[in-house]
Amino acid sequence: MSDTLARPIGAARPRRVSTVRRQQNRAALFFLLPGCALFTLCVIYPIFSSITLSFYNWDGMTAKTFVGFANYVELFQTDTFYTALKNNLLWLVLFLLAPPLGLVFALYLNQHVRGIRAVKSLFFAPFVLSGVVVGLVFSWFYDPTFGLLKMIVGHGIPVLGDPKLVTFGIIFAALWPQAPFCMILYLTGLTGINPEIVEAARMEGAKGWRLFWYVVLPQLRPATFMAIVLTVIGALRSFDLIAVMSGGGPFDSSTVLAYFMYDQAIKYYREGYSAAIAVVLFAIMLVYIVFHLRRMLREER
């Protein structure tokens, strides 16, 4: 009698568990649907729309004309494209100075001394400024007639008017807000460091550079990953400072792929050609991001 009663009760438990799991999965799906729909509308659809548009010749008003790979052929035969690509690589190399600078600032500010909050706010201030404001400030700084650089050096240097110096001058201006951004990431990472591991390393005799390199820095790996990835993406999509400070000149010497894309779409109404530039830029970003994501997943496993 007891066996016959026990069987239905035991069989009912898995059914209840499966029902609860099904309800939880359904609720999770409903919560995810708005975000997935928005991501599809604002990210996935524009990506495929740009790829499709790159095979057409379109001025934004008249009917589209299918041209196949003609936009890409013209792009790879244009000298401005290779100038923009070279400048993007230069941005990428020099912009990677921001993570180590941010780490140095974070280590300096991660102290419990009087007045450190005011110092932190001074370091953080450039990050909250608009790119247009930063561009205007450094345009005045570089001005060869009344700029602060002239007062420091003793004579005017036409940084933004020299094809050899203009890109370096804009990158230096871009590092001013980017380094505090990396500093914030590292300050957040420093708060999550396990003090017991640091204390154990000190008891073993580790100090100074060895303590930092072998104990502190490995625990900052997530912050380093985010700082490098976001810095690389910022270097590849650099636009605002170039638009404000040089307009891609002189003689297209400071243009990058993002500004070249804008120039062709807005000034010359070549939407299909601009879409081809966007696809090439997206492919460069995608290769780099996939490489770093695979490396991060491999390390976690």
TrEMBL record:
It holds the Pfam family BPD_transp_1. It is found in: Cell membrane. CDD domains: TM_PBP2. Keywords: Cell membrane, Membrane, Transmembrane, Transmembrane helix, Transport. It is a multi-pass membrane protein. It comes from the Bacteria. Its main location: membrane. The chain crosses the membrane at residues 28-48, 89-109, 121-142, 165-190, 211-236, 272-291. InterPro entries: MetI-like (IPR000515), MetI-like_sf (IPR035906), UgpAE/MalFG_permease (IPR050809). Residues 84-292 form the ABC transmembrane type-1 domain. The keyword Transmembrane applies. Belongs to the binding-protein-dependent transport system permease family. This is Melibiose/raffinose/stachyose import permease protein MelD. The gene is melD_4.
